[in-house]
Write a structure and sequence with these properties.
The chain is mainly β. The protein has one domain. It starts with a strand and ends in a 16-residue tail after the last helix. The structure holds zinc ion (ZN).
Length: 82
């Protein structure tokens, strides 16, 4: 969940993990730790046609969620980090 200092200017204040409630600090618009952010717009082939789901997870909740997958995720390493 994203909280904004100024809703009109969309200045990001902090992110709250939807999974555990942990507060993730934001400085100059950048989260200060890893965040998994979802914005899923469901289309007409789904049961949620026209609805958009948004949530944020901290890295620990992301790991907990992906560890429940029956088929493990694939992870590759980027060679060029900016
Ligand atoms: Zn969390």
């Amino acid at each position: 969940m994203r909280e904004y200092k100024n809703k009109e200017a969309r200045i990001l204040d902090r992110i709250i993990c939807n999974g555990c409630g942990k507060i993730i600090a934001v400085k100059r618009g950048m989260p200060m730790e890893g965040v998994f952010s979802v914005c899923q717009a469901w289309d007409y082939l789904s049961g949620k046609d026209g609805e958009t789901d948004r949530f944020d997870l901290c890295e620990e909740c992301y790991d907990r969620m992906t560890e429940t997958f029956r088929i493990p995720l694939s992870r590759t390493e980027r060679t060029e980090l900016l």
